[in-house]
Automatic annotation (TrEMBL):
Source organism of this protein record: Pedobacter duraquae
Primary location recorded for the protein, binned into one broad class: membrane
Keywords: Membrane, Transmembrane, Transmembrane helix
Entry protein name: Mn2+/Fe2+ NRAMP family transporter
Domain of life: Bacteria
Chain segments annotated as transmembrane: 37-60, 81-104, 110-133, 142-161, 181-201, 222-244, 271-295, 307-324, 330-354, 366-391
Pfam name, any one: Nramp
Subcellular location: Membrane
Membrane topology term: Multi-pass membrane protein
Length: 392
């Protein structure tokens, strides 16, 4: 029997994934690589969009058909593999959440002049409030949509104000003069790496929007999520390009803030505060939800106290940030780590697509499998190259 598609949940899942991707690290990465590669960064973005879409479609479809969370699927592929995958995703989610809390705190600092630590604590309380609310799923969907639209709207304004060289950006997006493997790895990792690609799929799972009959809707949700994240990436790219093309130098301590401030003065700086707060707080929600979703099927008590454990996860992230200070330097590194997790996660899902006990009679399109395998190979190759550069 075909399950009725709940479009509100589907769009909420897309926004949850996109909002999880568009965190403080996302803003930092985009500003840094625009300054490094100039208009040629447009090519990296286009390449990453293709890789992102292939990875997302494979993972969302297989989770929807199997009607199980990724860690249970992985354990069926090979006993114990789900625990390993959960360990990687959970640690990656925790590391990202420290940066997300920091970003939200920085946003509060810019907007209201309070300390970053105080802003982080207030933001953590707001995020916790969403999970305390009885209708947490609906609240999370609404929050993700609102924050997603806010970020895109503000980025569009700054992109317009910065007067970017659009013709050059379009030309170099097809015919680049510079390229960086590590940029692709970090950008893909920051968009669909680690916990991020599973956030929307696990939300659909919790809302029972699964099964072969719902695959068309799942496809739309997966591609919508990538589309939303990509729109934001492109807007930030052209905003940053408009700034750096004038010869202006970004502040290495906070390159994303420089883009907004140089484009629109004090108003731009305040807008940056609002954007990075929205990016941080929505990513805190997405990261906490998805990271806990990777362990809640392992024991009945984890499932029973799922909401409480999610709240503790947020509090621990906030406490670590308050103890170690600003983790701005790790945001690029965490993107790379999540990029290294992606080929493992995607490879497991591709194997699962051909296990009858997992997907029953479902037949994964051959082109999607081959494209997914290609993404695994590309990400492994780029990850290997990036690690060699770090070690040299």
């Amino acid at each position: 029997m075909k399950k009725k598609t709940n479009w509100s949940i589907l769009i909420g899942a897309a926004f949850l994934m996109a909002s999880s991707a568009i965190g403080p690290g996302f803003l930092t990465q985009t500003a840094v690589f625009t300054e490094q590669l100039g208009a040629s960064f447009g090519f990296v973005i286009l390449l990453s969009v293709v890789l992102d879409a292939i990875a997302q479609l494979n993972i969302w479809r297989i989770i929807a058909v199997a009607d199980k969370p990724a860690q249970d699927i992985a354990n069926q592929v090979f006993p114990g593999l789900g625990y390993f995958l959960s360990f990687l995703v959970f640690l990656g989610g925790l590391a990202f959440n420290i940066g997300n809390i920091a970003g939200a705190g920085l946003g509060m600092n810019v907007l209201f002049g309070i300390s970053t630590g105080q802003g982080a604590m207030i933001s953590a309380v707001i995020a916790i409030g969403i999970f305390v609310y009885k209708e947490a799923g609906k609240a999370m969907d609404l929050f993700a949509k609102t924050m997603g639209l806010l970020k895109i709207g503000l980025a569009l304004f700054i992109a317009y104000i910065s007067d970017p060289p659009l013709a050059e950006a379009a030309a170099r997006s097809i015919n680049p003069t510079q390229f960086s493997f590590s940029a692709v790895l970090i950008i893909v990792g920051g968009t669909v790496g680690g916990y991020i690609t599973f956030s929307g799929a696990h939300r659909l799972l919790d809302a029972r929007q699964t099964g072969i009959d719902n695959l068309r809707s799942v496809n739309k949700g997966a591609l919508s999520a990538i589309g939303l994240a990509s729109i934001m990436r492109i807007l930030l790219f052209i905003a940053a390009l408009g700034v750096v093309s004038t010869g202006a130098k970004l502040d290495p301590g906070n390159p994303a803030a420089s883009v907004f401030q140089l484009a629109s003065g004090q108003l731009g700086y305040k807008i940056f505060g609002l954007v990075i707060w929205a990016a941080g707080i929505s990513s805190v929600v997405g990261s906490a939800y998805t990271s806990i979703s990777f362990i809640k099927s392992f024991h009945p008590k984890i499932l029973k106290y799922n909401r409480l454990i999610t709240i503790i996860f947020i509090l621990v992230s906030c406490a670590i940030f308050l103890l170690i200070g600003k983790p701005v330097k790790i945001l690029l590194a965490v993107g790379a780590i999540n990029g290294l997790i992606l080929p493992i996660a995607l490879g497991v899902m591709l194997l699962a697509a051909y296990r009858y006990k997992i997907v029953s009679t479902y037949k994964q399109p051959l082109w999607l499998t081959l494209a997914g395998a290609g993404v695994v190979v590309i990400m492994v190759y780029m990850g290997y190259g990036t690690i060699l550069n770090i070690l040299q």
